[in-house]
Amino acid sequence: MPVTRAILTLNSGSSSLKLGLFTETLETLALAHVDRIGRREAAMVIRDAAGARLPLPAAAPDAFATNAAALRTALATFEAQFDGLDVIAVGHRIVHGGTDHAAPERITEPLMADLARLAPFAPLHQPHNLAGVRAALEAFPGTPQIACYDTAFHRGHPFVSDTFALPRRYYEKGVRRYGFHGLSYDYITSELARSEPALHAGRVAVAHLGSGASMCAIAQGRSVASTMGFSALEGLPMGTRPGELDPGILLYMLDEEGLTSHEIATLLYKESGLLGMSGLSNDMRVLEASDAPRAQEAIDYFCFRIRRQVGAMAAAMGGLDGVVFCGGIGENSGRVRAQACEGLEFLGLEIDAAANAANARDIGSGRVRVLVLPTNEEIVIARGASAVLDL
Ligand code: ADP
User: Is 255 a catalytic residue?
Assistant: First the structure.
């Protein structure tokens, strides 16, 4: 019987699960995405390397009741598709590696305990990532599991990009500007190294615009600044998170409105951003299609904050040679890309309207290159697993 040796990647969120299946030589076999886990509308899509949808087996009613169930269902689908599937390693996206974990590494029980201690730094992500590890340990006992950190790409930041102006003890306690979306920035950097070596050697502002959104200043392939900070709330506005906020607003909510910290967390993580501003949706497609003034204002604010940060990233790097857009919005919304770059001609940034409307790869017409590059966090996790295991 033929055997398919494969590396599995897992990105386990609060209500979604993304899986990737790769050969030992890092060719993509399949990608799966389960959404709305735990709800009746839960759904899974599995695609092969060419993007064609693979058939789903008849799913039991509780197939997507929990992340662990969704993992079993997705694995059953992979097993039906690939003869003698032999998972030789599982790579995990772990949002927070703290100050100490700056490269992919094999997961042990002491490491799990260490990562669990970082959960208060990323309360809405880290526990779900670690639950994904537990589920995979159960599904593949004895198979090496590798942690790949979203914070790792940013660990080399200079002190001024890493700190807040708080009493020094907070810095020592780990209250720092970590930066996230590192797996995506790592991928974009590798793509630039492969296909645009001159740009890779220069100064690039990368905008990862998905449900979560951030920007990163990457000079000579290294992160020097990020809009994300201590938590995944900082920086750009996002689908349901506000981004940069005057901390005085939190004091106002606590002292004047009497909100509890739990209520504030819900407001900041789930009710703000594009959703809160528009009162309509966190989905950019819905906002773009709407003629409601608040939907348009939400998009205007989103683009304005990106534009300000392009300037900030250029300042952090002492100039700008390229801008890269990625993530669901960055890869698909010509409106957002054009509006975010508006008025930045003084930096050498100009958009070719026709190329932008066609979602072309190269959409700049000025001195600064402007690229649209589909990101691929899964392959970065697979590469990390492969490197740790020396495959
Ligand atoms: P996640 O961070 O959950 O992986 P994605 O990177 O898939 O999210 O990005 C999700 C966002 O991308 C949503 O706001 C969605 O509306 C937006 N998006 C996807 N396709 C388009 C499109 N064709 N036009 C505008 N926005 C889009």
Answer: no
